[in-house]
Amino acid sequence: MKRILEVKNLTKVFKKANGESHTAVNGISFDLNEGEIFSFLGPNGAGKSTTINMVTTQLSPTAGTIKVDGEDIQSSPINARTKIGIVAQHNNLDRGLTAHENLLYHGRYFGLSKHESETRAEILLKDFGLYDWKDDYVKSFSGGMAQRLKIARAIMHKPAILFLDEPTTGLDPAYREILWEHVLRLNKENKTTVFLTTHYMEEPERFSDRVAIYNKGEIKAIGTIDELRKQIPSESLIYLKVDQTSELFSKQLSKLGTVKSLKVVDEKNYVIYPNESKKALTEILHLFEQSKTQLENIQLSSTTLDDIFIHLTTDEEEK
Ligand SMILES: Nc1ncnc2c1ncn2[C@@H]1O[C@H](COP(=O)(O)OP(=O)(O)OP(=O)(O)O)[C@@H](O)[C@H]1O
Ligand SMILES: [Mg+2]
Questions:
Q1: Residue boundaries of the structural domains of the chain
Q2: pLDDT in tens, 21-38
């Protein structure tokens, strides 16, 4: 299978305002195949956009190598750039141009003929609901309109690899579906590889071939969702919401025979990995009878990508 992206030991160290160093990306390595849909998931500030910015030639790495379709991006950045489409997290449209001009200039820059650019721009402006605003300047656009134009621009030239950095943030549900229709069509007809970051877990669940869970500059797990599910201690989970989590209550929970392990998610929420889920529910409810901690909600569910994400990105209480 053809490798479209090869990343080795990629590292980025930033200097903070106080002079300290911050390692946003800490020597990560991964490869993507042609036609693969890959989700790169991680908490806010984990380093996802920094990774995308380096891989798409917008930011120089501190160390490491990146190849796009076999081309080293440091020695031949222009060749690499022609194969890439990017929906950046921030608004990087040309605000002094109209919507139509943004698309046309992009198409021409990426080697489409004038006719091809016009045809493709018209289709995309219509599909993304911007045709009636095509001659308006981007600076007058709402957040959602600008996001739709960024998406249209990124897919204008049918790139070999498409980077989507939280593309559906700010999009209404109807346009989310239109985005995915276009992306899946490109993936099918053009074998476009997709590198997605998102905080909406239903998107990787619906569309991804593989997922990486990334936190604090490192890839914690990579594989299909089923492969990642095997890294969760149990197949069902108990979500527990209390008035206030505490060390004492966490210890009491941990000591229950039916609790395999638990995580303190925040000041009100626990995720509990039970040995025997129904017995664990009874034991936990019983615990509240003797505790000052107040129960607000308790729920049993089977593991989802959300659970895998939480498991791999929050610290676990030692049992
Ligand atoms: N230009 C910069 N200078 C200094 N620090 C930076 C710079 N860009 C990013 N960082 C830092 O690197 C870390 C990772 O940021 P990044 O934007 O990659 O996170 P992210 O995973 O994309 O988060 P989010 O989900 O919020 O978009 C953060 O701590 C951020 O403050
Ligand atoms: Mg980001």
A1: 3-228, 233-317
A2: 999 999 999 999 999 999
